[in-house]
């Protein structure tokens, strides 16, 4: 697995400068509580609700609000209901956020969501999009979303 450049720098500082691989680093730095928490982003629960495919923890109030927006379509409602700011999975005081790490995570999440949606809903055609902002330092601009391509 190709790791982001900024992460390579972190890994190379370990073991008196000899460096370690990503799996060893996780064994040294990770914990089960965070792994459980991250699973909500890396293997989310999806459900069918009416004509939508949504993340399980959706708000019906928000859904109805987006539906009532002028020009709203099923696609636009699903896209906004299912969006995730990749930077929001970090800690509030995270000091090591960088564009390369967020892009790496966003691309992996895109693959994961596409695979899980295809697996759970093989009869549906879902689009998973990872948006990268023009300003690479706008960490909140990196977003993942999905929607059904068309009614089936």
Describe the protein in words.
By secondary structure, the protein is α+β, with helices and mostly antiparallel strands. The protein has one domain (31-148). The protein has helices at 5-12, 22-29, 32-42, 60-67, 74-81, 99-120, and strands at 46-49, 52-55, 84-85, 126-131, 143-148. Strands 3-5-4 form a three-stranded antiparallel beta sheet. A two-stranded antiparallel sheet has the order 1-2. A hairpin with a 2-residue loop joins β1 and β2. The longest helix is centred in the C-terminal third of the chain and has 22 residues, at 99-120.
| Quantity of strands, as a count | 5
Instruction: Classify the beta-strand content into a percent band.
Output: 5-15%
Largest sheet: 3 strands, antiparallel
- Widest beta sheet: strand line-up: 3-5-4
What is the count of helical runs?
6
Anisotropy-based shape: elongated
- What is the count of structural domains? 1
Mean residue pLDDT: 92
Return Rg in Å.
18 Å
Oligomer: single chain
End-to-end separation in angstroms reads: 36 Å
The low-pLDDT segments are none
């Amino acid at each position: 697995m190709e790791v982001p450049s900024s992460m390579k720098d972190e890994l190379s500082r370990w073991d008196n400068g000899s460096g370690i691989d990503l799996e060893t680093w996780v064994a040294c730095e990770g914990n089960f509580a965070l792994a459980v928490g991250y699973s909500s982003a890396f293997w989310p629960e999806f459900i069918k609700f009416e004509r939508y495919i949504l993340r399980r923890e959706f708000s019906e109030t928000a859904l109805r609000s987006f539906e009532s927006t002028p020009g709203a379509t099923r696609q636009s409602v699903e896209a906004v209901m299912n969006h995730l700011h990749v930077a929001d999975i970090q800690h509030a005081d995270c000091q090591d956020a960088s564009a390369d790490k967020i892009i790496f995570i966003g691309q992996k999440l895109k693959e994961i969501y596409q695979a899980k949606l295809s697996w759970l809903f093989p009869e549906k055609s879902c689009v998973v999009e990872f948006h990268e902002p023009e300003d690479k330092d706008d960490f909140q601009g990196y977003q993942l979303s999905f929607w059904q391509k068309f009614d089936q």
